[in-house]
Each structure stands twice: as structure tokens, then as C-alpha cells.
Design the sequence.
């Protein structure tokens, strides 16, 4: 390859990389309702439906993979009438009617069967076969799938009636963080939206080429297929990034989430979290913006409030120790530094301890 051709190819690769990053940034910046609408649009595509649910003569070529330690919030099977009464957009009476219809079908087949076949797709069976096993018509099965997506775009109608700490900002609650009663250190997520609870898409690419040949796809169908698969990968990228952030943050803050003790928060900066999951800090910033979680004791907080700076954590711990008389004049900075390492797992310099200690002393003196 000549040098001019190499330069052209390099420019093309750089442009494609830039376009990919811009697309990723755009999807991460989308709000949860906007993403739910994108998913609804995607899953309404006939080619997507064929890939995901197969047909009477072909098995599905896509499935879902649930996130670890996760489930759908139980409020999905209820209805937040206060939110519905205050809704300013959409035909609420129509949503109520459709929701009643969906819940009737769910009760008919049972919640367990609904989640196995229509929410998580654990069995990865063609829709006609699944409907036959459940005693549903295929039309009823399609209505359930459509309603899951439609109601998922209005998840505020079944989310818990809690508000985040930051007033004046509209937050979208992703999940409730739960404790295992038998083991408080084990945390799990109950996602507010069925789109989140379903996990990520998995495409069986190794079977795709054979499927296209057997199906005899037209040029237009191949183009639509490429577009659908691109949207699938972008959605996966977005949800993967957000789940990694959610999982990393809760893992780091397990002691706090298990105890409700603010002094057990651990330092975790936005930059450090970005380094751990292999993305840019700006990516993490976009991902946590205007998103919240419900803590195990029911309080809803902005997700970014669990990203705590080192100085904030040190101030909290030393303030607690000071109130208990453990930071008196006879206690050296060296002693506090070692105690922070032994009890809190925080390794800082003696100079840092001294700076934080002097700041706390000044605050107490001023009070």
C-alpha cells in the first residue's frame, strides 16, 4: 500500500472512531424515558421481532442476558395512581386500560411464566411455541410484548413514591438496592423499568449469515438488518456502561449500604471509577447525570452522591471520631493515619490527616 493510500485509510479509521465515540456519547446522554422510547421503536421493527422471537419454522437468533443479582421491581405489577393523576402528557386512561388488560393476561398465565417467556426470555423459544405452551394465541403473546415495552416507557406509574435528595432536579430512578436479610453484605438490584430488568441483547452472530442466506434477504432487508444490529450494539454499550458503574459503586460502598453508617463511605472519585471500568471520566459524568437509586432503607439519592472524594470521607470519619473523643490532643497524626488504614482501609499521608484534622478543629472552634 502506498503512503497516500495509507494516509487515506488512517483518516477513514479516525473518522469512524470519532463517529463511534460521538454516537456512544449521544446514547449515554439520553434520559431513561428517551431510551425506553428508542427500545420501543427498535423492538417494533419486524426484522428485530423475527430475530428475537423467531417464527414457526425458525429459531430466534437473539436472546437476552440478565444482569447479575437483579430482578424487576414488584411495583411493576401495581400502579402508582398518584403519578397517573399528576401526569401531564400521554393518554393516561388509555394506559390504565392497557395495563389492566396486560395484568389480566399475566394473572392468567402466572407471574413466573410471564417473566420466563416474555420478560427475560430464559427459554429462548419461538413466540408461537411459547404461546402454545401457555395456552395463549399468538396475538395475545404479541400484545403482552407490546404492552411491556409501552408501560416500560411510563415507569413513573409504578416506581416507589420517593424523591431524591436534590430538590429542583428531575431524577430518573434506575433501581432499588436491596440487602439479603440473611447476609446484609450481599446486595442486589430491583430495576424500576422492564427494559433494565431484561438485561442486554445477545446476538448469535455465528448463525446470522446462514439465516440471511436461507431467508433470501433483499438488499433493502439487509440494510434494515444492519441498522437494527447497530442500534442493538449501541443500546448494549449504553446499558453495559451504566450497569458497570452501578455495580462498581455499590460494591465499593457495600459497608455503608449494609450499615447505613455515613462514616463507612469509601473514597471513590469519578476519575478513579472511570479508570476501573476503562472509560473516560466524561463518560462516567454523563452516565450518572440525573440518575438516582433507592437505598436499602428506602431513601432515594442521586447516583453521583455515592461517588465520594477522599477529603469528604476523611472529614466524615474524623468528625465522628472527634465527637467520640478519639481525636484529642494526645492522639498523633501518625496514630490516626494507621487507624484509618486498619479500620477504614484508607491509606493517606500523615500530612493529609493533619490538614483535615486542623480544618475540623477550626470548624469546631468557630461553632
Sequence:
Amino acid at each position: 500500500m502506498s503512503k497516500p493510500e495509507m494516509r487515506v485509510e488512517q483518516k477513514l479509521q479516525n473518522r469512524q472512531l470519532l463517529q463511534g465515540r460521538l454516537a456512544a456519547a449521544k446514547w449515554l446522554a439520553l434520559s431513561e424515558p428517551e431510551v425506553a422510547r428508542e427500545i420501543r421503536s427498535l423492538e417494533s421493527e419486524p426484522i428485530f421481532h423475527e430475530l428475537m422471537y423467531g417464527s414457526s419454522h425458525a429459531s430466534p437468533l437473539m436472546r437476552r442476558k440478565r444482569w447479575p443479582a437483579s430482578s424487576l421491581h414488584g411495583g411493576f405489577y401495581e400502579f402508582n395512581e398518584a403519578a397517573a393523576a399528576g401526569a401531564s402528557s400521554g393518554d393516561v386512561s388509555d394506559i390504565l386500560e392497557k395495563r389492566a388488560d396486560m395484568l389480566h393476561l399475566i394473572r392468567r398465565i402466572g407471574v413466573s411464566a410471564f417473566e420466563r417467556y416474555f420478560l427475560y426470555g430464559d427459554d429462548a423459544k419461538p413466540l408461537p411455541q411459547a404461546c402454545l405452551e401457555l395456552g395463549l394465541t399468538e396475538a395475545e403473546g404479541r400484545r403482552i410484548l407490546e404492552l411491556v415495552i409501552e408501560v416500560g416507557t411510563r415507569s413513573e406509574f409504578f416506581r416507589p413514591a420517593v424523591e431524591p435528595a436534590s430538590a429542583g432536579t428531575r431524577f430518573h430512578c434506575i433501581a432499588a438496592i436491596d440487602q439479603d436479610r440473611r447476609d446484609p453484605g450481599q446486595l442486589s438490584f430491583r430495576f424500576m423499568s422492564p427494559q433494565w430488568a431484561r438485561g442486554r441483547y445477545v446476538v448469535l452472530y455465528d448463525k446470522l449469515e446462514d439465516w440471511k442466506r436461507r431467508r433470501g434477504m433483499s438488499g433493502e432487508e439487509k440494510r434494515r438488518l444492519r441498522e437494527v444490529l447497530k442500534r442493538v450494539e449501541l443500546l448494549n454499550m449504553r446499558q453495559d456502561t451504566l450497569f458497570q458503574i452501578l455495580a462498581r459503586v455499590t460494591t465499593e460502598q457495600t459497608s455503608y449500604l449494609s450499615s447505613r453508617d455515613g462514616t463507612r463511605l469509601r473514597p471513590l472519585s469519578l476519575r478513579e471509577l472511570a479508570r476501573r471500568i476503562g472509560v473516560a471520566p466524561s463518560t462516567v459524568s454523563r452516565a450518572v447525570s440525573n440518575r438516582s437509586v433507592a437505598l436499602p432503607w428506602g431513601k432515594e439519592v442521586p447516583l453521583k452522591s455515592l461517588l465520594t472524594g477522599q477529603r469528604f470521607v476523611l472529614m466524615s470519619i474524623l468528625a465522628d471520631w472527634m465527637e467520640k473523643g478519639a481525636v484529642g490532643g494526645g492522639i498523633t497524626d501518625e496514630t490516626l493515619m494507621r487507624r484509618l488504614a486498619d479500620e477504614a482501609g484508607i491509606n493517606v499521608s500523615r500530612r493529609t490527616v493533619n490538614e483535615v484534622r486542623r480544618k475540623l478543629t477550626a470548624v469546631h472552634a468557630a461553632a
Q: What stands out?
A: The first strand starts at residue 62 and ends at 65. Residues 219-252 form the longest helix (34 residues). Residues 22-306 form one domain.
